[in-house]
Amino acid sequence: MFYWLIELSNTVPGLSALHPFLNVFRYITFRTGGAVVTGALFVFLFGPWIIDHLRLRQGKGQPIRTDGPQSHLSKKGTPTMGGLMILSGLVVSTVLWANPLNPYVWIVLAVTLGFGFVGFYDDYLKVTKQTHSGFAGRIRLLLEAIIAIAACYALIRLGRETSATVLAIPFFKEVVLNLGWFFVLFGAFIIVGAGNAVNLTDGLDGLAIVPVMIAAASFGMIAYLAGNAVFSDYLQINYVPGTGELAVLCGAVLGAGLGFLWFNAPPASIFMGDTGSLALGGMLGSIAVAVKHEIVLAVIGGLFVLEAVSVIVQVASFKLTGKRIFKMAPIHHHFEQLGWTEPQIVIRFWIISVMLALAGLSTLKLR
User: Fold this and answer.
1) Most buried in the list 146, 174, 232, 323, measured by CB within 10 Å?
2) 272 contact partners, CB below 8 Å, separation of at least 6
3) Helix, strand or coil, per DSSP, at residue 167
4) Is 303 exposed, middle or buried (0-12, 13-18, 19+ CB in 10 A)?
């Protein structure tokens, strides 16, 4: 609507006086700010209704693992699928503020909603059957891979021929690897890995959503810079025309995440569930692939990587040697077993996320 009004003000004499006011909507920075506010307000206003509706429909809420930390048993009855709150605010805010003609917005949004649907079905099975396992893991990974491969193919077709399939190495100006069409599989691995890494991190109240917001804010800045010819040339990073619009989507995530944190702060009124964690992780992965900063995602999202690696190491060690490396995996449960309180773990992990984000952003200049 804003774009239509801008064009209308250029052609209709009576509306020419509004042109200076309407012209501000052309700026990505302004619309990103609008997306943050809109996303937050939407979740603040509709969050209580969504929570009450989910609590009524789910009854017993998300099943709590009996073999997990005993302190979690007090959370029994808390509704899950809180990702619906985040996704609702995200979609509404993005549709209102992002350029509807930008294909990158729709590709990333499609990945986000696709992963969100997979997570929603998994949550649905867990709640209805009151079990810790949803549908088969291989089928879930296959669905995620199909979505990710389709998105990577679309991103390559959109990109410039000289850089669409290259992998940039942080800290180096001209060191790139041209993966050719193998980049489709590599990019899909990044997206699927990011989705499941965030999913593994979501185990304590507020633990996953703040690092996601920190990563989204960081990639919002990277997307804005990568989509600007002047800034990308100055910083010696890949220029990807059109990706600047993804900053608006990142702003929507930041706003919706703030609204969700209001209800997810300890003690949580609702859990994010796979609906939110898979969707947000897939979104971060697809943005990283779109702006050609896949390796930087591993730095900025280092906390998610640590959580995923802890599970892989734990499972591999137990299968090979019969011994466990950690007291419990993912690693945030390990610290619970060591005696750390839940707020201590959450806040300390937030601090680590901020430090990792700063390290990741530093790669923009140290080239």
Assistant:
1) 232
2) 80, 82, 83, 86, 202, 208, 209, 260, 264
3) strand
4) buried
Rounded Cα gap, residues 232 and 95, in angstroms: 27
Strand partners, 178: 166
Cis? peptide before 103, omega within 30° of 0: no
Tokens matching residue 177: 């690897």
> Locate tokens 């949550």: which residue?
123
Query: Taking each helix axis from N to C terminus, what angle separates 246-264 and 83-97, rounded to the nearest 10 degrees?
Result: 150
Residue among 68, 60, 363, 116 at smallest CA distance from 238? 363
Q: Where are the strands (E) in 44-99, listed by range?
A: none
pLDDT in tens, 10-50: 666 666 666 667 777 788 999 999 999 999 999 999 999 99
Q: What SS3 class is residue 52?
A: helix
pLDDT digits (tens, 9 = 90+) for 316-329: 998 889 889 988 88
Secondary structure (3-state) at 40: helix
